[in-house]
Amino acid sequence: MEPEVQDCHQSIIQLNKVSFSYRDQQVIRDLNFSVKERDFVGIVGSNGAGKTTLLRMIVGLLPAAEGAIELFGTPIRKFKDWERIGYVPQKNAFNPLFPATVREVVMSGLYNRKSLFKRLSRQDQQKCDDALEVMRIQDIADKRIGALSGGQQQRVFLARALINRPDLLILDEPTIGIDAETQAGFFDLITHMHARHHMTFLMVTHDLDMVKDYLGESPVSQNGKIQFFVRHSHEIENCAEEDLQHSLV
Amino acid sequence: MLDILFSDFFQRALVGGVLIGITAPLIGMFLVLRRLSMIGDTLSHVTIAGVALGFLIEVYPIAAGLVFAVLASFAIEKLRKAYKSYAELSIAIIMSGGVALASLFFTLGMGYNTDVMSYLFGSIYTLDTTDIYMVAGVTVVVIAVVALLFKEFFLLSFEEDAASVSGLPVKMMNMLITVLTALVVSTAIKIVGALLVSALLTIPVAISLLLARSFRSSIILSVIISELAVIGGLMMAGLFNLAPGATIVLLLIALLVITMLGRKGFTTT
Ligand SMILES: Nc1ncnc2c1ncn2[C@@H]1O[C@H](COP(=O)(O)OP(=O)(O)O)[C@@H](O)[C@H]1O
Ligand SMILES: [Mg+2]
């Protein structure tokens, strides 16, 4: 028997017939959608299309009314490995007077149920330094977060999402309110991470140029007013070749 | 005149005050940053109802107050869920319920009213050895819990959603902070008074927010400020025979004004 072309990539996100409503307003209806390991998925849609709602369901902040969500092959209710996911929400709802330095905020990316009651180690400090360096914010590490510009704050939150070296990075309009130059640098950075560091991306954006450049001209699927653009991982690296590499290590 | 400062009752008030001076801003920080400052006030009003009942049925009043405060903290969390984005509503409901019960019990127990004043505005005369043990026990519990969950409480206060996405037990942590508040408030009212206890939870924090950049330094600063006010306020209360709640809170407000004026002079970030 001829085996089907085997998919060597793990399923990262799987949505089956997912629906969601706020009180009387249905925002998402019957959504089927899957993200495989190392995919880069761009989500585009007009304001109010339900993009943020979708991401909040995927990270477990909103319960799906109907349907099933799986993360890394585990039903979301049973999922425990939250440190594998980095999430940068659309608006960080923190109080601008909050007394926290950039370093304290980035460090907080390490706090999860597995680190409960544990003290921070030297390695944790090192991870923080690395994340600060990747986002080029070492020089503002001791500044108060509320005193920074919107673009700087965005980089801080990205550093926080990256500190665990997550397998999946979920970004909700990460470049809103950032100047064009910084924005271009930002896209270079994440496409580099995608290509080199084997991360999976799920990103909501209004930047159609970036989407079409990197993810192709046409969406692979659509649900209501939400469009999904995908760059599959095997377009970057060949599956079989990669399996070979794995077996060599 | 200075003799009073060396008397037994004053020494007891001082020990109790110093301990509360640590725990009140420690817990107050997490309340203020989560915009739940009013919880302190609510719980103190409910505590008074418990204290009044304690007098009425001849049970140790602080213990009765503590039970009331803890029950109220569960009720607040329940109501907070029912009225999600109207946290202040649940707080207002419980607060008025507490005042209503307190006045009911006090009117039933006419004759004990001599003690009421000291529970409303604080007193340096009323603290006995049992009270000191209560305060010390609460202090140990509060410091232990905050030390164990310091980084988690930080994340919870900074961004509840992020704590939730990290898989932290957000509901339980919220509950824990409210229960700790109940413990601090119910043991603090004998010194600071029910009407003024929330000032000790919030004003040192408010001052430290004007000065500190990091979370760690703002916690330390708020404890130092609260100790200055508690020790200074107790001495003034002892020397001039005033209600300590009043002197402590007025000192705190003076410190706040000085800080705000000083900051205007040379603005820093
Ligand atoms: N917390 C909420 N309660 C009620 N309705 C909401 C809430 N959040 C969003 N909505 C509504 O749901 C729809 C989708 O919102 P959202 O997911 O934020 O869209 P997008 O991110 O695509 O702009 C909008 O019509 C919005 O008004
Ligand atoms: Mg949105």
Automatic annotation (TrEMBL), chain A:
Top-level taxonomic group: Bacteria
Alphabetical list of Gene3D superfamilies matching this protein: P-loop containing nucleotide triphosphate hydrolases
Residue ranges crossing the lipid bilayer per the database entry: none
A single GO molecular function term of this UniProt record: ATP binding
Keyword flag Transport: yes
Record keywords: ATP-binding, Nucleotide-binding, Transport
InterPro entries in the cross-refs: AAA+_ATPase, ABC_transporter-like_ATP-bd, ABC_transporter-like_CS, Metal_Ion_Import_ABC, P-loop_NTPase
First and last residue of the signal peptide: none
Pfam families, A to Z: ABC_tran
PROSITE patterns reported in the protein's UniProt record: ABC_TRANSPORTER_1, ABC_TRANSPORTER_2
Domain ABC transporter: 13-248
Family designation: Belongs to the ABC transporter superfamily.
Name the UniProt record assigns to this protein: ABC transporter
Organism placement in taxonomy: Bacteria, Bacillati, Bacillota, Bacilli, Bacillales
TrEMBL record, chain B:
TM region(s), chain numbering: 12-33, 45-74, 86-112, 132-150, 162-185, 191-212, 219-240, 246-262
Cited InterPro entries: ABC_BtuC-like, ABC_TroCD
Gene Ontology cellular-component terms listed: ATP-binding cassette (ABC) transporter complex
Membrane topology note: Multi-pass membrane protein
Entry similarity comment: Belongs to the ABC-3 integral membrane protein family.
Matches recorded under PANTHER family: ABC-TRANSPORTER METAL-BINDING PROTEIN (PTHR30477), METAL TRANSPORT SYSTEM MEMBRANE PROTEIN TM_0125-RELATED (PTHR30477:SF0)
Protein name: Iron chelate uptake ABC transporter family permease subunit
